[in-house]
Design goal:
By secondary structure, this protein is of the alpha/beta class. The chain is built from nine helices and 15 strands. The strands form four sheets. Strands 3-4-5-6-7-8-11-14 form an eight-stranded parallel β-barrel, surrounded by six helices. The protein has a two-stranded antiparallel ribbon with strand order 1-2. Strands 9-10 form a two-stranded antiparallel sheet.
């Protein structure tokens, strides 16, 4: 799948969808984007900036949701133009699809909404690549239905994003077999490592997380020869307005990506064997 000057594919060098969870401010978004650009340029990693203008699925009514559609798209457009990178953001309602697609070359459907037919159809009618987060309550096999809905609405440019499955209460687990099952749907597979570290509702009125395992879990995903990684970072995760317990400290980004890039190169240099 072609995006600007690189291909997104399970057999191609990794693509990174990285940035911040929610767009807290224009200045912070620019700071995060600049750091990601610096690291990905140095390491020759294909890069897409990620930031959400609205987090419509927060645990508490008192949680920060974001700057909203209009202001959020202004920030994303400035980042895209300033750094000459594609951008990705979430949509939550069918009416947002066309407006967002005019700025974002990748439109993301959140995990909780991947089965919403009207939303999928509206996104599919844009010219953007559509990324589907695999819902925590679905098996990898069931994502075939989501893919079929999107194709039926006229868009075959689809990426599938693994982000763990619900395991009892307030916990997620990642089944690495899911990566191979998703790859059989003939679409690029992305691993959302930061959201896979969540402890949903684990803080009572907010989501907890296990940031200390981000590198080891990212390596497990990248070892499956997939298209790339989805990663959120923050200059001070403990002060982040959303999902701070899962975010990578921005200061660790370059060292983190160096290990992931090296592993991706090694894995994709191996020849498949028949079993």
């Amino acid at each position: 799948m072609k995006l600007r000057n690189f291909n997104i594919d399970n057999s191609e060098p990794m693509t990174l969808m990285g940035g911040m969870n929610v767009l807290e401010s224009r200045d912070l978004a620019m700071e995060v984007a600049e750091k990601f650009i610096e690291s990905t340029n140095n390491l020759k990693i294909n890069y897409i900036f990620k930031g959400s203008f609205d987090k419509a699925n927060r645990s508490s009514i008192n949680s920060y949701r974001g700057p909203g559609l209009e202001e959020g798209l202004k920030i994303l457009e400035e980042i895209s133009n300033t750094f000459d990178v594609p951008v990705i953001t979430d949509i939550h309602e069918p009416l947002q699809a066309q407006t967002v697609s005019e700025i974002c070359e990748v439109v993301q459907i959140p995990a909780f909404l991947a089965r919403q037919t009207d939303l999928v159809s509206a996104a599919a009618k844009t010219k953007s690549i559509i990324q589907f987060k695999k819902p925590q309550f679905l098996s990898a096999q069931e994502m075939s239905n989501v893919v079929e809905k999107c194709i039926a609405a006229g868009n075959e440019n689809i990426t599938l994003c693994e982000r763990g499955n619900t395991f009892g209460y307030n916990n997620l687990v990642v089944d690495t077999l899911n990566f191979q099952i998703l790859k059989k749907l003939s679409k690029p597979v992305i691993f959302d490592v930061t959201h896979s570290l969540q402890l949903p509702g684990g803080l009572g009125s907010a989501t907890g997380g296990r940031r200390e395992y981000v590198l080891s879990l990212a390596k497990a995903g990248i070892s499956q020869s997939i298209a790339g990684l989805f990663l959120e970072a923050h200059p001070n995760p403990d002060e982040a307005k959303c999902d701070g317990p899962c975010a990578l400290p921005l200061s660790s980004l370059n060292d983190f990506l160096k290990q992931i890039k090296d592993l991706d190169d090694f894995i994709k240099d191996q020849k498949d064997i028949e079993i």
